[in-house]
Amino acid sequence: MKNNFEIAKNIMSIENLKINLLGKVYSLFKAFNEDEAGEVLIDNLCDILISAYLLGEKLGYDFEEMDEQVIKKLKLQIIDKNFDGDYNFSGLERYIKGRKRE
């Protein structure tokens, strides 16, 4: 019975993180539409990043593993250049690699 309780608790945690993540994405878009100050935007962006990392952890990935996957995706973006516009993929890759040394 204890295992069932733990499974249910874990599922609820995952669902709460998914709801939180969607809510923060909604808040971010709402802030864009209302032309909010930069502090509101960065607050929502930070909450989205935190929720994404915590959700990944609940799904069985550790933070370092997620960073490694982000670096792989950034390298692909640098090579493929699929995005229109000027994005700093290389700078983000260097930043993530640099914080691993700390």
From TrEMBL:
Pfam families attached to this UniProt entry: MazG-like (PF12643)
The organism's place on the tree of life at top rank: Bacteria
GO molecular function: nucleoside triphosphate diphosphatase activity
UniProt-listed InterPro entries: DCTPP
An individual GO BP term: nucleoside triphosphate catabolic process
Protein name in UniProt: MazG-like family
